[in-house]
Amino acid sequence: MTRTKAAFIPPSTIEISVLVPVMNEAGNIRPLIEEISAALTGRRFEIIYVDDASTDDSPAELASCAADIPELRVLRHQTRAGQSAAIRSALLAARGELIGVLDGDGQNVPADLPALEAALLAETGKTGATGMAAGIRARRQDSAMRLLASRGARWIRRSLLADTHPDSGCGIKVLHRSLFLQLPFFNHMHRFMPSLVRRHGGVVIGVAVAHRPRLRGTSKYRILDRLVVGISDVIGVIWLLRRAPRQGEVTEVMAGKKTAQKAVRKVAKKTAKKASKKASNKASNRGVGA
Questions:
Q1: Do 96 and 152 share a domain, yes or no?
Q2: Which neighbouring-strand residues pair with 101?
Q3: pLDDT tens across 5-17, in order?
Q4: Angle at Cα 184 formed by Cα 182 and Cα 187, nearest 5°?
Q5: How many domains does the chain have?
Q6: Distance of CA 18 to the CA centre of its chain
Q7: 238 Cβ partners below 8 Å, 6+ apart?
Q8: In this structure, what DSSP letter does residue 27 have?
Q9: 238 versus 223: which is more confidently predicted?
Q10: At what angle do helices 29-39 and 113-127 cross, to 10 degrees?
Q11: Is position 5 within any domain?
């Protein structure tokens, strides 16, 4: 797909920013970008890829795509920092009011983004709250060992973190940017998004999504690594949840018309009193001098 560069889209008009972290995903990049573009046709959107210090042909493929696809922005980490750090870099650069996130391996299906967005807006529109619509993979296309490991991780999160979302490890989600920026950042935080969103008073909506087998490249995570690192992560998240903010909803108090008039009269009276006292002191001083 070759496209001519379009006119610059003002940041204030972007509806949704789609963030995609990648590391050594050559071959998966252009097909996924084209799917995202097709899923959001007719919308004002941007796609932000973060290359986490890839050593394959990913940088060249991203440069080629950026020349053809006007909605694409590309960031690159000089040093490999991990998936959560890549998502964070993209979030800080994003300009949309809504944020979509999906993995760069092609297993998430971009066509699910509009359904996630619709579910989020329908739910939060009732109360005005912020939140996240998170994917639930109905038929995961992963190995038996990976499915077993995910089941164990899900049991741990449910038992220790009270995380009732059935698929916290699913990479595709849509959430409000204002909420996302409030979440605490740490390595591997993307695995605990439902718990962190609820920690900040957001709602979490589960939406059934498709899932595909990986067609190119290899997974960057080993099951044992996830298990060992996951234990310390869970301990850290427990600490965070116990120290969650408790202020509830924050609203600005607006003075009514009568209240405002009363405040003006009070200030005027106070000012007049000060002026009268000052004049009296001056008169008294003149009398003493005489």
A1: yes
A2: 19, 173
A3: 444 556 668 999 9
A4: 140
A5: 2
A6: 10
A7: 160, 161
A8: T
A9: 238
A10: 50
A11: no
